[in-house]
Amino acid sequence: MSIGRILGVVILVIGIGLLVTGYNASESAVDQISETLVGRYTDETIWYLIGGIAGIVAGVLLLLFGRRR
Description:
- This protein is mostly helical.
- The chain has one domain (3-65).
- It has 3 helices and no strands.
- It has helices spanning 3-26, 29-38, 43-65.
């Protein structure tokens, strides 16, 4: 397995972790109140979700197109 694919797996796992963290944060009482009053989640939760999605996309792309020997 090449270093590009290993890096892809690592980034994919980190992305999944960030996405799960963002989802759990969106279910917290503070975010529920923020969404009810303001109509959106807190900035921290949004960044977790964006980082998670970006990590998943980057990890999958590295897995698919990582440098082959």
